[in-house]
Specification:
Elements lengths: L7 H4 L18 E8 L16 H10 L5 E4 L4 E3 L1 H9 L4 E7 L3 H13 L6 H18 L26 H9 L3 H13 L2 H7 L8 H8 L3 H12 L6 H15 L12 E6 L3 E6 L2
Parallel strand pairs: 2-4
Antiparallel strand pairs: 1-4, 2-3, 5-6
Helix pairs in contact: 2-3, 4-5, 5-7, 6-7, 7-9, 8-10, 10-11
C-alpha cells in the first residue's frame, strides 16, 4: 500500500509559482500537456541531488503518474526529476509532460521553487537553494537588487517604480516562508565555505538553523576545523568544538624556550583547563 510520503509527487506541484495576487505567472502557463519519449528529455546538472526513488516508483506503479513532469519546448527538464527516474525504473518509454513557455533562467527558477516547497530538504540545502534563487531572480529583474529602487519625493517617496517584488518578498510568497527566514538562509549559504558544507552534509547540524547561523559567522579556517570535529563525532555544541580547536592549535605551537638537560621536562598547555608534560630531547 502506498504511504502518504510516497504520494508527495501528486501534491507538491499544486503550490506552483504564484505572484502576490495569487495568479500564475504568464510565462509559466503550459503551452500544452502531452506525452513525450523519455529518451528525448535532457536533464542538466541539478541543484538538488537525486535520492532513492524506489518507493515513488512503487506508488506510480500502483496509482499511475498523478502529476506530469514539466519540460521546456526543447525538452529540457524543469521539474520532476524523481518522477522521471521512477518512471525509468518502471521501464516506461514515454511520460506525461507539461510543456512550459520559459527561458533557461526561468526554468532554473522554477526548479528552485519546485524543490523549496518540498518538506524533505535540510536547512543547509534550503539555504543553497535560496541563494541560487536570489541570483536567478535578480538576473531576471536587476531593478529589484538591494530591495528595489525606492523612489524620492518627486516620484512618490517610498513607492517603488518597478512592478516586481524584492527577492525576499517574492521568494517568501512562492515558498510560503517568512521574509526574515529567507534572509537568514541566504546569509548562511553566502557565509558558509564549501568545505564546511561538505563536512556537515550528513550530520545533525545540516538541519539546525541556529547552529549553522553561528558557524557561518566564524572565519573559514575555523569553520572547517569545527565542521571536522562535528563530522568526526568529537563535539556537538559549537562552543565545545571551538574550544577543542583552539586547544589543539595552542598545543601544536613550537616551544620557544631553550630546553636543555636529559631530566628537564617542559609543562605546556592551558593550565586553566588541562596541562601535560613533554619530555625534552
Amino acid at each position: 500500500m502506498a504511504t502518504t510520503a510516497s504520494l508527495r509527487h501528486h501534491r507538491h506541484d499544486q503550490n506552483r509559482k504564484q505572484n502576490q495576487d495569487g495568479q500564475p505567472h504568464a510565462s509559466s502557463v503550459p503551452i500544452h500537456a502531452t506525452s513525450v519519449r523519455i529518451a528525448s528529455i535532457t536533464v542538466l546538472p541539478r541543484i538538488r541531488t537525486l535520492g532513492d526513488v524506489s518507493s515513488l516508483a512503487e506508488s506510480i506503479r500502483q496509482l499511475g503518474l498523478l502529476q506530469p513532469i514539466s519540460i521546456t519546448h526543447t525538452h529540457r527538464l524543469i521539474a520532476g526529476l524523481h518522477r522521471l527516474e521512477a518512471c525509468k525504473l518502471l521501464g516506461w518509454k514515454t511520460i506525461p509532460v507539461q510543456v512550459l513557455r520559459v527561458s533557461d533562467t526561468e526554468a532554473q527558477l522554477l526548479e528552485c521553487d519546485e524543490n523549496l516547497i518540498r518538506n524533505d530538504l535540510t536547512v543547509m540545502e534550503k539555504a543553497d537553494h535560496y541563494l541560487r534563487r536570489k541570483t536567478l531572480y535578480e538576473e531576471l529583474h536587476p531593478e529589484t537588487r538591494n530591495g528595489g529602487w525606492r523612489g524620492n519625493g518627486h516620484t512618490g517617496g517610498l513607492r517603488t517604480r518597478t512592478t516586481y517584488l524584492s527577492f525576499c518578498l517574492d521568494a517568501g510568497n512562492k515558498t510560503h516562508c517568512s521574509i526574515r527566514t529567507v534572509q537568514r538562509l541566504v546569509q548562511i549559504a553566502k557565509l558558509l565555505c564549501p568545505e564546511a558544507k561538505r563536512l556537515l552534509l550528513n550530520t545533525e547540524w545540516a538541519t539546525n538553523q541556529m547552529k549553522l547561523t553561528k558557524l557561518a559567522k566564524l572565519p573559514h579556517d575555523l569553520q572547517i576545523s569545527v565542521a571536522q570535529k562535528v563530522a568526526n563525532g568529537e563535539a556537538q555544541l559549537l562552543n565545545d568544538a571551538v574550544a577543542k580547536v583552539h586547544q589543539e592549535r595552542f598545543r601544536a605551537k613550537a616551544c620557544r624556550l631553550p630546553v636543555e638537560g636529559a631530566d628537564y621536562k617542559l609543562l605546556c598547555g592551558d593550565f586553566r583547563r588541562v596541562g601535560h608534560e613533554v619530555p625534552s630531547d
